[in-house]
Every structure is written in C-alpha cells, then in structure tokens.
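A quick aside before the break. I want you to see a complete sequence-to-structure record at least once, exactly as it would be stored in a machine-readable document. Don't worry about memorizing anything.
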Amino acid sequence: MPNPIPMAMIGCGGMARHHVRNILKQLDTTRVAVVCEPSAEAYAAFAKVFTQAEQPAPPNVPDLTQLLRQHDVQAAFIVTPHVYHHDQTQACLEAGVDVLLEKPMVMNAAEAQSLIALRDRTQRLLVVAFPGSLSPYLRAAVKMLRSGEHGPVQSISATIWQNWDIMTRNTWRQEPAVAGGGFLFDTGAHMLNTVVELAGEPFVQVAAWLDNRGRPVETMGVAMGRLESGALVTFHACGEAIPSCASDIRVFCEKAILRTGMWGEFLELQRENEKDLSPVVTPPSLGVWEQFLAVRRGELANPSPPEVGLRMARLYDAIVASAAKNGTLVDCTAN
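That is the input. The structure line, written in tokens, reads:
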C-alpha cells in the first residue's frame, strides 16, 4: 500500500464531520493534511472529532486560494453549501487536485456542464459524492437490471421522508440563493440520483407539484415521469415528517422486485415464485471516500462522474419547471 495521500477537507460542517469519522478509519490510505473553513466554531467542532479519535487536528487555512498555493495536497473533499461547489471545484481542478464533491454537485445544469468541461480540460479526477452511485449494493442492482435477467423495468416507486424543515430552519439550507432548492434538492438529491441510476435511461416527460408550506424553499414534493422505454416513475418527498430520515425505492421488473434506499445502503430482491424480499450480499464499504480512492487508484471505473450531476440537475430543473405551472407536463427531450 502506498503512503497515505495528503488531502484537504473543504468545509467543516456537520456533513464534513460525518465523513471524516469514516476517513479516520482509513489512515492507512489517507492523511487529512489541511482544512478550509471560515467559521471558527465549525473548525473547533471538526477538530474535536480528531481529538476524540486520538489524532492531531489538521491546520485550518480559511482561504482556499492560499491553501492550494501553500499546501501540497493531492485530493480534496468539498463539503460546503451548494452555491460554492462550482468555484471551489474549479480552483482545485486547476491546481491539479483531484476532487470528491458533495451532492448536489452544483446549482444548475449550466454549472454542471462547466465542471464537465473543466474536468476534460484539466484531466483531473472529479467524483460526485452520491452514496447511491458509489454504493456496491447499487452497482450490484444496476448490473442485475442491465443484464436483463429479471426482464425489463416496468415501473419505479421512490419515497423519502425526514423532519427536514425543523432541522434546517434558519440555516443556509433554506436560503434559495445559497441552497439552490429545498428538501427535494437537498436530501431528495439522493433519491433523484439513485432512481436515475437504477433506470439507466433518460426521462422523456415529467410532471410535478412542490409545496413550500410557507417556507422559502420546498419542503414537500411529488413528481411522476416516463422513461424513454415507456416505464413509469413516481417520486414522493416529505420534509415535514416526524423526527426521522429514511427512504424506500422499489424497482418493479417483469420477473422480480428490487428494493433499496436512497443511499444504496442495502439491496433486497424478490424473484417470481418467491414470497418475500431477501437481502443481497455485497462486500462492505467504508463510504464515499473509500470508493473515491478506489477510482483514483484505477481499481474501479468512476461510477459517479460529473455527468451524474448534470442528469440530476436536468431532472430537478424539469420538476421545478412543471411545478411552476401547476403540474404541466414537461418535455425532457428538449434538454
């Protein structure tokens, strides 16, 4: 095993702390060399995670340009408010740094196309941190579906729920200019991406309704669509649930039913003539950073390139466009 790669954590908020707990289990492959966080309070909370793991906390350089100029890092994990994703990724790629970028990748399809062009121009690695696309369970599901062993996909049903409104009230996640959208764009990004991953084909039509419940962004939403093959898809997002965060995604094939979650955290299968769903076993994973490193080492083809950010942005844009016209059908083939 080569020496641990020096990496930079860009952002030290709650999600960054979640991810770094897993990264600290991978010290044989990774060294968190430096972080970039303008908030002293967020950095203190981040440093505490290292203290609890009996590891020295990395230094904080709040200015990303200065960090990239002064520190020799090979990779960066960007976990910041959505509005900053594009420019921070651009800075890292142009500095020759490979990037794992938290979801949703960007604010809109134009920014997604920009990052694809940057990836191509710099020839650096860009992976979107969608746990679904990076999940061994979901890759197993996709392999089953593409093989045709269970017959064609007839429909997909996806539901997510969370007490998102209460958890995010008075934070940047409910500021449209910073967040880019509400519950369906934030937690719901996992559901949208995982469904599109399972479908494996474009949407041709979408109809949707969103409800802000008096908030600056949507906390409720339903959408339905038709895939290129004619298969039907439904989405249901409830960000006003009791304290919880969960999902249920089912793919109905001609000869089987597959069930997973928005993060691809498990996989169950029920074949025809079987009474119940049964777990599908795959090798365990330590999360998105481990998968990113596997891609970086060439052991795994990138399952979550910036193109997945583009397809999710286009789907969300179609949902918003339909909802703005009270569920008017949107033609997705015009994208």
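Two observations worth writing down. The chain has a mean pLDDT of 96. The radius of gyration is 20 Å. We'll return to this after the break.
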